[in-house]
Structure to design on (365 residues):
């Protein structure tokens, strides 16, 4: 006898995201493929995608691939609409070799990863002050890179410049060189002297303009990081740039970081076994966010030079026979533990949660 029920079918969705389109797929709790369809990556497409998901039953969760890139806005829209969104990594190469590669295959793989429990990460909300900091760091990073390139090009031009010009610019710092080159007045551009002066003047003006742009961005970032993480910015070795990177790594929602060990893995500073035979040792995890790893490395180097307790620790561990790399590994792991606690408290305060309170994972989901 067939038993009828009014309960809607519970389904799990997966989305393979792209720049112009998103491909969604739906499976049931047993992993059976139900349907898949492509939607445009626009506001209208997002609404159509959500309506299409709802037409297949009660959506338990949506696995979205690329929540930090093409799927960022989709993840925001789905979360605001009440869907449980899970961050899904792209399929590994072994699975792609076995099953092939297509938008529908990747969408079904995202849904299967959520259903099997392999994908459990919460995506960044990207709707607060931390996202503003991340956005401002993008032009700052490119401006710093362009300034370094312009300075290097200026010095390379001087290698082959006429001696009269080289004597005028010899021994100057980068800032002095830029301001002096910006004031050069080329005359005859058909000769090496005039053409080199014109090139140096252009590079000098570019360096000065980039200096001004970087200074403006630094002022804005200093204000935002002080608001977002007032306790973090006071820690030894943590400036606006380092604090901005650590905040961007953590995201606006601290619920993503379930423990300080998870944060250490995220930053690539969690030690993993690397023993062989009689040699018992650990090495750093080379995965994770390399920019966050560099931020912790900057803190460690600063403390090794200026912080007396850290200098004492380095001396003691050196006498025990540890190499500089091994000491840095220990320091970065300790710093990750310290930074995690301060960072989580700062983010909780901004969300109106008392520091040290347990994270409500059910509410976050």
């Amino acid at each position: 006898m067939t038993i009828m029920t009014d309960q809607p079918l519970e389904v799990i969705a997966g989305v393979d995201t792209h720049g112009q389109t998103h491909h969604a797929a739906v499976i049931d709790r047993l992993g059976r493929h139900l349907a898949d369809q492509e939607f445009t990556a626009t506001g209208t497409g997002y609404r159509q995608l959500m309506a299409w998901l709802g037409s297949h039953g009660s959506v338990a969760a949506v696995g979205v691939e690329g929540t930090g890139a093409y799927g960022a806005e989709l993840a925001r829209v789905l979360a605001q609409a009440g869907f449980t969104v899970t961050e899904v990594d792209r399929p590994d190469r072994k699975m792609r070799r076995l099953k092939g590669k297509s938008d529908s295959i990747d969408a079904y793989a995202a849904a299967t990863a959520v259903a099997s429990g392999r994908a459990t990460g919460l995506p960044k909300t990207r709707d607060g002050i931390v996202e503003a900091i991340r956005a401002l760091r993008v032009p700052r990073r490119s401006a710093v890179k362009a300034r370094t390139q312009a300075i290097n090009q200026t010095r390379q031009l001087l290698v082959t410049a006429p001696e009269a010009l080289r004597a005028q610019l010899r021994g100057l710092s980068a800032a002095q060189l830029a301001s002096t080159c910006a004031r050069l007045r080329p005359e005859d551009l058909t000769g090496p002297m005039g053409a080199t002066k014109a090139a140096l003047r252009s590079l000098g003006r570019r360096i000065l303009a980039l200096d001004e742009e970087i200074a403006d961005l630094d002022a804005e970032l200093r204000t935002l990081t002080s608001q977002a993480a007032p306790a973090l910015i006071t820690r030894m070795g943590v400036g606006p740039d380092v604090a901005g990177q650590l905040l961007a790594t953590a995201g606006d929602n601290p619920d993503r970081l379930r423990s300080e060990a998870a944060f250490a893995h995220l930053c690539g500073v969690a030690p993993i076994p690397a023993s062989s035979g009689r040699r018992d040792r650990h090495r750093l995890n080379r995965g994770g966010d390399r920019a966050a790893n560099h931020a912790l490395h900057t803190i460690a180097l600063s403390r090794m030079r200026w912080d007396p307790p850290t200098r004492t620790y380095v001396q003691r561990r050196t006498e025990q026979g540890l190499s500089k790399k091994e000491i840095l590994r220990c320091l970065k792991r300790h710093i990750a533990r310290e930074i995690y606690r301060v960072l989580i408290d700062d983010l909780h305060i901004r969300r109106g949660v008392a520091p040290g309170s347990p994270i409500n994972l059910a509410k976050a989901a």
